[in-house]
Hints:
Mean pLDDT: 75
Number of helices: 5
Order of helices and strands: EEHEEEHEEHHEEH
Shape: elongated
Largest sheet: 4 strands, antiparallel
Oligomer: single chain
Radius of gyration: 20 Å
Number of strands: 9
Distance between the termini: 37 Å
Amino acid sequence: MTSILLLWETPDGARHWEALEKKQVSGFLEQLVTSGVSPASIIMAYNPIFLHWAFPSFHRNFSDVSFAQIDESIAGYAPEQPSKHPRVSVREDDVPRFGWIAPDGRFFFCDYGGHIALAEKIVGELEKISDPEQYLEDHGWVKISSGKMHGKKYFVGMGLGKKLSDDQFAAISMNGWDSSVYGLSLYL
């Protein structure tokens, strides 16, 4: 059932929207951000949302839009037509998400223990560095890793004296990470 409405702006200024099932949101947001959409341009609205057709005559003179069935409603009340939800990865909320967040808010995902290899891949495109993790942290990147040593699910790390950019904070908020993440308050 559709329960979330996402609105965003692409770098060229075009505005878009998509109605999603709750379980699709994380994967869809990740795709948006990695495709270059600024996290600062993404808006989420939750069901119930009160929407009305601008031209009810095209919808059997009904003015209210059933947000939970918006895909079918736009298709012209044809329940035999399948939902047009985008194909996105679906992740359960308890699946850890580790990686790096660039200063502009883009999130680069890696598995547990994959930070060095990912840092080498990111930095290696620029130049060969002996310690790519330290290089990224010193250049304002945020490391999201396991916080098990500190009794938390996630740990946030950055270079000495660095602070989160607004885009990084938006990416952290968008992924459901909050002040309960170990170390986050040090970089606000």
